[in-house]
Amino acid sequence: MTPSTGRRWSIGPLRRFTRNLLLPVNAAGSPLLLKYTRHPAEAREEIRGHRQVSANYRVPTLHAHLRVPGGHLVVYERLPAGRDRGLLLDLLNTEQPTPDLTRYLDDLTSHYRHVILSTARLADPTDIIRKLYWDRAAPGGRLDHYYADTDPLLTVGTDHLPLSQLAGYTLHINGDELHLDWTATLTDLKRHFHSNEPVWAAITQGDPTDVNLAHPLAWLDLDTGGLNSIAGEFANYLWYTTALGGWLVPTYNPAAFADHPATLTRLPANTPELHKARIDIGNRVITVSYTLRLSQPRRLAAATYWHRLVQPVAAELWPDTNLADILRPYVAMRILAVYNLDDLAPADRLVLIIRLAEVMSGDFSAESFFLAPEPACPAS
Length: 380
Fold this sequence. Notes:
- It contains twelve helices and 17 strands.
- The protein is an alpha+beta fold.
- It has two domains: 9-77, Phosphorylase Kinase, domain 1, CATH 3.30.200.20; 88-370, Aminoglycoside 3'-phosphotransferase, Chain: A, domain 2.
- The strands form five sheets. Strands 1, 2, 3, 4, 5 and 6 form a six-stranded antiparallel beta sheet that branches. Strands 11-10-17-16 form a four-stranded mixed beta sheet, covered by helices on one side.
- A hairpin with a 2-residue loop joins strand 2 (15-17) and strand 3 (20-27).
- Helix 7 runs antiparallel to helix 9 (296-317).
- The longest helix is centred in the middle third of the chain and has 23 residues, at 230-252.
- The chain is globular, with a radius of gyration of 21 Å.
């Protein structure tokens, strides 16, 4: 249980999220959060990020940072939180959107719109935070680490197709015909993020997920805070809201939600459903029928973000450019460079490959990709 802020001295419980340890503490009545990392460079990034964004965003007060045996400790003000409360995540873990969620999303997008447009500039890629995109596409980065020496399999039942052979197949996905060249996709992503072409960037937290956004509104986890690609910011929020946060992260890291168990209760409402999948090796055809499932609160969170933030910012910064072309490489990186496809269950891997094929298609529409219509009720 989370310690009461009314007690003058208390400690625990210890929580692990990704590679860090988080420990809530009450010291002389002051609620603190101790964040421990074994990697000094990550601690330095956290401290730098806090300094970069604190003038534009509400962030917890940074009380101290110090070296400790085996790592580094960062001491923050602990914002009010408890079981299933304190994060945007908790506003999304309801059956229907609440007025609190609507107000929160309006405040979130209004604040982002003001800060992004007031700090936006064309920046050299070497001047922006590179951790989530450029570094992962660089030689030796996650794309290489995950896929350079492996050939993931597309598995349907007892049929297995190496992704390197996918270019020779036609994909029939929910009635649409698509193609995906796995090797060319990896090459194109590396080439894109190796380019020195300037990108529109602004001051943001950089990793806007439902666990990094507090309620009441504040920004947490600041190691990517600073000058970030705006398109990367958009892709990150939208993919996390519609795929990672409600489906993949609770599926593969359920322990991270010990204090927010409603996330696991809502997992079925956010998990895609495969209706039919078949690999016809003789005719080189893959047929898949599937439904994206997304809870009503998450649909609202994605739609509000798109209409109140992405569209008005894009109208200012990319007025004559197809937004799909701007977002495509960032969304593809979110699909490929968060989880290693080889580590996922075959059905989840299949859905991600389908979604990647949709992104890489020349007909890709980011709006319809993220704001997929609610599935129709089956006929009685």
